[in-house]
Design goal:
It is built from 15 helices and three strands. The chain is mainly alpha-helical.
Amino acid sequence: MMDRTLLERRHPFARAVGAQSNMWRLDWVLLVAVAALCVIGTLLVWSSTRTWAAGSTGLVKKHMLNLAIGAVLCGLVTMIDHRLLRAYAPVVYLVTLIGLVLVVTPVGTTVNGSHSWIMLGGGFAIQPSEFAKLGLVLMLAMLLAQPAEGTDRPRALDVVLSLLSAVVAMGLVMLQPDLGTTLVLAVITASALIIGGVQKRWILLLAFAVVVAAVAVWLLDLLEPYQVARFTAFIDPGVDPRGVGYNSTQSLIAIGSGELFGKGLFEGGQTTGRFVPEQHTDFIFTVAGEEFGFLGSVTVVALLGVVLLRGLHIAKQCDDRFGTLVAGSIVCWLGFQSFVNIGMTVGIMPITGLPLPFVSYGGTSTFANLIAVGFLQAIRIREQSF
């Protein structure tokens, strides 16, 4: 019988699926959970757009194309040694900053009150702020990965550079203005600092700066009128049920009407009648609640929980600080964004315009989320190779 090692050397396919291939080092639980969320999201996008999108399947086809492109990007990133990403982190970060700068020039386009997009033609557009999340994750991980001599804490200079990197990115995003993404970038920054083991005074300083910035934004009236209206509706959804409180009120009606088992796919009255605005993007969880019911909604939450737990496991098992920082920051990013998105549909968080990871319709957000999964898998592969 031919030696197994010799067989794998001779046949490329055998090498690809052999016992020593990277395929067997992947976190398949993570991949299955992400794939399940993408499938559910596709069904929900189809249901929420079929009555008004061109040809009834126009947007869902585009969504499936975005998922396919995202899957390819995820696979390509998975094959990269994440230590190589450390070397190119400043380049990635700089490219994302260039994108953010272009957005606030005449090149950018306003959509739903936010000047966050660059139109590419053919109905396609990119949102650089989504890629800024990836760039900031890599940049902070690179800066905080090298501890000061004789300690396990980052050097003070690296902490200052990290905060400066975050402030520049958040400042450019706020110019759009995009409060939701700015909050995500702030969470990524805070999580990287905590995971990196910075001294408590830095965390307290960051918290103080956030409070001061929030007060300044409010007192100087820097928020757009629609953003103020969203906070007003969150505090009291009944203040204007046909105006600023409309989204929150209709969202609760849609989710509550699904009861335990839901009305069935394509059978939701709120969804079919388009009573909830942006139901294929920011409010897609209302489609799950109405058509799949409480059990379907819990399934979505559980799958997101699996993704976060597997990400935490990868961060915990990683044998270098850079990988741990990248994985941990990604988990905090996805966890915070999921909590805010679901929270705003059930009335426990203000509306911020953040999509639900792996479920909501979107191009750039889908790419960023799946690239993040590729980062996790790249770290996992190296971890399993030792």
